[in-house]
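Supplementary Text 2. Reproducibility record for the structural model of the 56-residue chain.

All settings were left at their defaults, and a single model was retained for analysis rather than an ensemble. We include the record here because the model underlies the residue-level annotations in Supplementary Table 4.
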Amino acid sequence: MTTKTLTSTTSVSSIIPALFAVVLGLGIITVTGHVQASTLHDAAHDVRHATGFPCH
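Retained model, structure tokens:
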């Protein structure tokens, strides 16, 4: 007689990255929601110049 043991480590290990992504996304939205618009514009503008993308 053989018995099979089921483990739930696969479902838990696949939930952790998704949960991390949700927490990270909410954190980014919260931080950018409290930053002034000119700061966000300047940051995006600097990134465009740093990557060589023409912005104006």
